[in-house]
Amino acid sequence: MGPGGSGPASSGPLDALTDVAGLRVGHARVAGAGALSGTTVVLAPEGGAIAAVDVRGGGPGTRETDALDPRNLVQRVDAVVLTGGSAYGLDAASGVMAWLEERGRGVRVGPDPAQVVPVVPAACLFDLGRGGDWRARPDASTGRAAVEDAAGTEPGAPVLEGGVGAGTGAVAGQLKGGVGTASVRLGSGITVGALVVVNAAGSVVDPRTGVLYGEYGADVPPLIPAPEVHRAALRRLAETREADAAPPLNTTLAVVGTDAELTRAQAQKLAGTAHDGLARAIRPVHLLTDGDTVFALATGARPLDPQNPVALNDLLAAGADCLTRAVVKAVRAARGTMGRHRGTGHPSYADLYGRPRPPV
Predict the structure, then answer these.
(1) 3-class DSSP state for residue 191?
(2) What's phi and psi for 317, nearest 5 deg?
C-alpha cells in the first residue's frame, strides 16, 4: 500500500507543482544583452491559499515572511514570488502586488471591495552580475510580467524548467542551476508538488562518481558516468572555479504545494520538513552564504483523514521527496551559459556528462 494506506503513490500527470489544482506558475526574464536574471511567480487560486515559510539559510533576502507566522493575522496569500537580483530583486513583488490589487485580490481592509492589501511573500537569490551587467536585475515590471504569464496559463499547464524565470542566472556549485518541479499523488488522492530554483553554494554532484546526489535512493538506480568522462568533468569544473572571481553567494528557493486542507501550523511543518529534500540533493546546504527558503501553499480542496491522527506524515515525506526530485530535474534541464565577462560562464550537467536521461 502507498502513503495514506489506500493505494500506491505515483507522480502527478505533469510531475509538476501545477498538478496541485489551482496553482499556476509563470516566469519572466530581465531583458538586455548583459542580463542573466528573472522572476518566477506561483499564483494561488481565487481566494488564496494557506501559506507558510521556513528559512534555513544564513543569508536570506525576503519580504512579508513574518506575515506567514501562524501567530499573526494574515490567513491566506494570493501569490509567492521567487526572484533573482538579490535584495534589489525583491522589488518584483511590487509588480505582483499591483496586479493583484487591480483585481481586488488581497486582504480586505475597508468597506469597498477594492480596498485590499495583497500580501505577497517573496524571497530572492543572488545572481548579480552573472550576465555581465551588475544593474540588470528584476524590478516591478518583471514581477508583473511573471504573474501575467502565470495567469495566462490554463489550469494544470506544464511548467518550464531549466534557465527560466528566477533560475535564469542560477548556479549550483560551478554548474548551471535553474528551475525544476515534481509532484506525487498519494494513495489518499491528495497531491503534493514542489518547485525549486537551484542556486546553491554547495554542490549537486558527488565528486567521487559524477552522480547527482538527488539520484541516490531513487526508484531507478543512477547511471554512473564513465571514469574518463568524470575526470574530464572535474577538470572543467576546476577551470570554471579558477575563472570565477565571484564570492559563493547563492540561495536555493522553493515552493511546496498541496491540495490538502491544512492549518497554518501544519503548512509550516510541511515547509520545514521539505528542507530535508534539499539536504539530500545539495551538499553542503543552509550555509551562511545561502538564504535557503521554502514556502508552503495549501489550497484546502481535500481534507486529511480524520481517523488518522498522523495523516500529515504522508504529506511531509512526499514534500521532501518531491523537492529532491525537483532539484535533479532542474539541474538536468539546465543549459550552460558562456559569458563574455570573467566568471559569467557556467557549464551544465549535460555539457559535462552528456544528454540527460528521463527524470527519476
Answers:
(1) strand
(2) -65, -40
Which cell numbers hold the place of 150? 502565470
What is the per-residue pLDDT across 173-182, written as a single tens digit (0 to 9) for each? 889 999 999 9
What distance, in Å, lies between the first and last C-alpha atoms of the chain? Answer: 21
Q: Which long-range contacts (CB under 8 A, 24 or more apart) does 97-104 make?
A: 98/140, 98/144, 99/143, 99/144, 99/147, 99/148, 99/151, 100/147
For the stretch 146-164, pLDDT in tens is: 999 999 999 999 999 999 9
Please name every residue paired with 27 in a beta bridge, in sequence order, or none if there are none: 40
Helix (H, G, I), strand (E, B) or coil at 298: strand
Upper half-sphere CA count for residue 125 (Cβ side, 13 Å): 37
Position 359 scores a pLDDT of 44
| pTM for this prediction | 0.93
Q: Is the pLDDT of residue 275 over 60?
A: yes
Answer left, alpha or beta for residue 145, where phi above 0 means left and psi between -120 and 50 means alpha: alpha
Rounded-to-integer distance, Cα 38 and Cα 92, Å: 9
pLDDT at 103 over 90: yes
Question: Residues with Cβ < 8 Å from 121, sequence gap 6 or more?
Answer: 51, 53, 62, 63, 64, 65, 67, 68, 77, 80, 81, 93, 295
DSSP readout, 88-156?
GGGGHHHHHHHHHHHTT-SEE-SSSTT-EE----EEE---TTTTS-TT----HHHHHHHHHHHHTSPTT
Helix (H/G/I), strand (E/B), else coil: 291: coil
| Spatial distance between the Cα atoms of 200 and 322, rounded to a whole number of angstroms | 18
Pair 52, 270: CB distance under 8 Å:
yes
Can you give the pLDDT at residue 360? 44
